[in-house]
């Protein structure tokens, strides 16, 4: 049989896309069928995702995907998206209100509220999850007493909600479930003690499924809407976008590259290493490293860094001011701006909420006694230097805390298009960076489907070798003054 075609639905915080992957032995191609913006909406004081708008984008994307494959025939569909967020559904399966955005302010004070229920050391030992105010556990605590939660009989994480609308079947995919702070990373099962202590009803979650499991079949109404030729199975993938992105890292498992670190750079930078078992030490908790679950029983041991969100929000502010910023031009100017003139802590939760980003970056420089960026180019340079510095710290901490030495850093995600960021990351880490693919999450999504369908075989290393053999990658060698990064790090840590 010839190569098979798969649709990867990949919903990022800044855009959603439906990609078509063509896979066979020695063949791996990915084409964009449809991309649509993901624009949150604030209404009556709450920040929401436009979840039906996103689902419309998925349907439009599947229709576009069908037009690109012979006889409109897809072998299967897989869905991944950002983590932690969810819809609540009543007993009939109707959505009870719009899913709230993880950047909404309702979880402010989550750390204190949680500590009153369970000491943070105990919570970390049980779940291995870094503290983020938006972890599903804290969102459910914040939603306590609302009529939606009272009426809810099902809770579906965003990709599981999309899969439910596509198939009529409910499930909870494990890699994304691991971001709820309600899963024990040692067993890959629910952390029942945590759920009991926090009063979370685990029966809201439909049964767990794993990447590669069958997740249903496109409903008749979906086939009609999209023009696809049925039957089309939906396959569970690493439905957490970062799990799919890490599966889509073109690392050399054969030892050529040695151990690798990865940085998935999109709206967030997720920087860390892949492990066989979680690290649940107190030192790891204090360093705010997380143990999320990956494809094939792996552990994604990583830290969340604010990522290109800082840049996205600067661009949005400048646009609102009528400046009409053009990203390519700004990046070219930023490359010429003075290096490491000022840096901010790109791990600071103070940058989580939307709004006024250039001013907030300037305020952070002022507070730390550093020069304030004088124009957009200098602000962009400050943001990129700060991200590279945070990448350096995360890669170093991941090695120290896991005991694994790293020889190469793989950068995947939209940030691959930003050559300056990739070079600064190589310089800051003092390690070679391999950049690409930008659409690693879609590749990871497609490869897991393709393996489930028998189009490819093997373990993660085998899937990655197919990526390495077929995709263009860019190499960045570390350059410049190493000591400058050490000094910048010392300034931030002080
Ligand atoms: P997410 O999945 O979180 O929505 P992506 O992985 O799509 O994020 O990455 C989006 C980011 O990638 C943008 O915010 C932008 O900074 C960067 N990016 C995308 N295209 C380009 C480009 N052509 N040049 C530079 N940066 C780019
Ligand atoms: C990246 C991501 C990240 C989560 C955040 C909520 O898209 O899934 O891994 O921490 O969104």
From TrEMBL:
<keyword id="KW-0547">Nucleotide-binding</keyword>
<feature type="domain" description="Carbohydrate kinase FGGY C-terminal">
    <location>
        <begin position="261"/>
        <end position="453"/>
    </location>
</feature>
<dbReference type="InterPro" id="IPR043129">
    <property type="entry name" value="ATPase_NBD"/>
</dbReference>
<keyword id="KW-0684">Rhamnose metabolism</keyword>
<keyword id="KW-1015">Disulfide bond</keyword>
<comment type="similarity">
    <text>Belongs to the FGGY kinase family.</text>
</comment>
<keyword id="KW-0067">ATP-binding</keyword>
<dbReference type="InterPro" id="IPR018485">
    <property type="entry name" value="FGGY_C"/>
</dbReference>
<keyword id="KW-0808">Transferase</keyword>
<dbReference type="InterPro" id="IPR018484">
    <property type="entry name" value="FGGY_N"/>
</dbReference>
<dbReference type="Pfam" id="PF02782">
    <property type="entry name" value="FGGY_C"/>
</dbReference>
<keyword id="KW-0418">Kinase</keyword>
<feature type="domain" description="Carbohydrate kinase FGGY N-terminal">
    <location>
        <begin position="8"/>
        <end position="247"/>
    </location>
</feature>
<dbReference type="Pfam" id="PF00370">
    <property type="entry name" value="FGGY_N"/>
</dbReference>
<dbReference type="InterPro" id="IPR013449">
    <property type="entry name" value="Rhamnulokinase"/>
</dbReference>
<protein>
    <submittedName>
        <fullName>Rhamnulokinase family protein</fullName>
    </submittedName>
</protein>
